[in-house]
């Protein structure tokens, strides 16, 4: 379906399903240059509304002020995301950027977008479908290796017992979680550790991760020496289970995303590390590509993943000694946000603030 026909289709039917959109910027009728749609998966992880969305919107506004931008957040519902995508397509969106709630379910969005003649950018989470035009994300397999390597390096070396690990993976419907898991197993291959148990957290649920870790601590009392958690939310759930079980000190636990609560746990010594991803750069890259696709350009991707042109960004490891350089100087979180009264003493101990500033 060509762009003119899509515009007619939008004019007739778009108003009927506009209510499914969480929010939008501008109006398709006011935008002869074309329309870009951004679909984000949830609001529970702070980065989507505080980083991804505003940076994406800012880049589009600067690079293509005459473009229309539609936005919707699915609130962790794959069905709602499907409705939002259909509403955008009905309004004649030309390029749709989707961070899928469920990457398998999102394949139907890709098919529908292709039927409407819209370009598709899989954002943050890989969608394994040949009609995806571009994939923009971070190297998840590398992140998994980095997480496992950090935990193994932090395990006690003054014991004859083989250290025991728990592996808390992400959602079984997320290809990124599968890549993370593969990276973890690559790093642990040949390592002197015993994998006590593995768990795939449905929808990246920290609550279910906490419940599973609690059960493992009962099953393996005194045996859990480290936990490789796929992201900071899962790490938070695992650490809550350790604390509830009275495990002290907390063994090394990995994370990912550089969330504020995780940085505070690292400062306080309750989480070993996180993997910071420059989500601003990721959103900026996706927005730039979206504008170029809208203009009929063909961005040259540096790599291919399962036949899909891919822009894969490098992550950054963050432990206690990296917080000032990576998190504070990188303007991910400010000292004031990190070193609240509850964490002021810990911030002094690790050298983030002076006693006079406290």
Describe what you observe in this structure.
By secondary structure, this protein is an alpha/beta fold. It folds into two domains: 3-132 and 278-313, Response regulator (Rossmann fold, 3-Layer(aba) Sandwich); 140-277 and 319-349, Rossmann fold (3-Layer(aba) Sandwich), CATH 3.40.50.2300. The protein has 13 helices and 13 strands. The protein has helices at residues 3-13, 47-63, 78-90, 107-115, 140-153, 175-188, 206-219, 232-244, 260-267, 279-294, 323-328, 335-338, 344-349; strands at residues 23-25, 35-40, 68-73, 95-98, 119-123, 134-138, 164-169, 194-200, 224-229, 274-276, 303-305, 308-313, 316-318. Helix 4 (107-115) links the parallel strand 4 and strand 5 (119-123). Residues 1-32 have low confidence and may be disordered. This is Substrate-binding domain-containing protein.
Descriptors:
single chain, alpha/beta, Rossmann fold, 41% helix, disordered N terminus, Substrate-binding domain-containing protein, SBP_2_dom, Peripla_BP_I, signal, Bact_Solute-Bind_Prot2
Short summary:
By secondary structure, the chain is α/β, with parallel strands linked by helices.
Which secondary structure elements does this structure contain, and how are they paired or packed?
Blueprint: H1 3-13, E1 23-25, E2 35-40, H2 47-63, E3 68-73, H3 78-90, E4 95-98, H4 107-115, E5 119-123, E6 134-138, H5 140-153, E7 164-169, H6 175-188, E8 194-200, H7 206-219, E9 224-229, H8 232-244, H9 260-267, E10 274-276, H10 279-294, E11 303-305, E12 308-313, E13 316-318, H11 323-328, H12 335-338, H13 344-349
Parallel strand pairs: 2-3, 2-4, 4-5, 5-6, 6-12, 7-8, 7-9
Antiparallel strand pairs: 1-3, 10-13, 11-12
